[in-house]
Design a protein that fits this description.
Helix 14 links the parallel strand 16 and strand 17. By secondary structure, the protein is α/β, with parallel strands linked by helices. Helices cover 36% and strands 13% of the residues. It folds into two domains: 264 residues, Rossmann fold, CATH 3.40.50; 206 residues, Rossmann fold (3-Layer(aba) Sandwich).
Amino acid sequence: MHPENLQAQPVECCAVDSPGDVEALSPGRGYAGSVRVPGRHCPSTGKCLQRRTGSAVIGKSMSSIKTPRGNVAVIGQGHVGLRVALRAAEVGWQVAGYDVDEGRVKELRAASGSMDGIDRERLRGVVEGGSYMPTARAADVAGFDVAVIAVPTPVDAGAIRPDMSHVEDAARLAGAHLRAGAVVSVESTVYPGATEEVVRPLLEAASGLAAGTDFHLGHSPERIDTGNSVYTFENTPKLVSGVSAGSLEALAGFYSTLVESVVKVPGVAEAELAKIIENTFREVNVAFVNEIAAAAAALGIDAGEAFAAAATKPFGFLPFTPGPGAGGHCLVGAATYLAWMGRERAGSPLQVVEASLAANRRMTAGMVQRIHEGIRLRGGDLAGSRVLLLGLAYKAGVSQTESSPAVALANALVETGAEVMAADPYVGECRELSPAVARVEASGALARQVDAVVLLVDHPGFDLRELFDTPAFVLNMRPTAS
């Protein structure tokens, strides 16, 4: 594929407002063709998958796509990578969805397992149709025209710094199969500078090609809000950036085939920083409302009513609700990256960010103390008491438990000697959870047999009126849910 096949033309505004505007962005100078590669078959259907060269006319409406656009390799098939792969397959790209977790790949081939808001029939349609191939074979990413890196970026707990090992592995894999004219997009949440400093050298070393000259490279941060049916991958504005003007246009051209609105960011580091600003904004405000809620509880003030009243102000205020702490990898990870960037790279500690991280980390110990006090006032002791936790996910309506404050509390309670039970209809296997925690189904009968009931996640389906009708100590960490 030639670089110009995915180049978008300069436009006066920085965003593509609708699929109809894509034609102005990408006038479609591409071509479509196909070459059969022996031995490449869909593991689910057995159908031969053709490797397409080049790109179809990008400027056409998504609904009018009839010919394959080209080959996309999405490295990482978690909740971010899967959505990119699914959408790309639906609009005419031939997609290889690579993941090192063979169990995850098997689930995707069968359209089973954790989907978190993705319609299984949509997934089944592209798998059976042959446009999406989940795979754990590294060789299957070969021949890509576009590679998207969407792997986890955890925090190195010991050093409190970004762990880029998964991104580095993904870059080496993409680099090994990188061809002139191809596009590489980093969607993983990274610290400012990571695309240029970490990904670029690995791609260039593995391929012998130069970014911005021989191939296109940029950062397009993910903005997935799992469980949100209003703002989806398709209708949430997509930030794109590139290491060169050509790379910026190439990324804009690719993503304009997937989403309604593409926003060009002038620099890669600026796009990387934008993402962690967005998430840290939530981390800071979560800490703010949680500290207020704790102080209000000590004074006998109904924090839920106070926050609801404040939310009626139509300007100068954004409502946040208290809970058990900040959760989800992106929230905690992004704030940690920002704090690390300020202290280690800029030489200027971001005190508000660091204080917010510390405040949210203290939530677990604070909840343990409140449960201990509640049971003690009823003549009991936390050690040996039965505690029912409602929810394990990091937020309502999803199955994800990454950096979940509910899981952290469950594990901390086990350490106190309490008999811990957890009910969460959305969460299946949870590797982070102590094996001593019993998984149960929430019911009023069970709530009346324990010493404490703790609401951590306000999942739809929890009958709070019934669950809170108990002589046990009740700790409601979601006061606006009741």
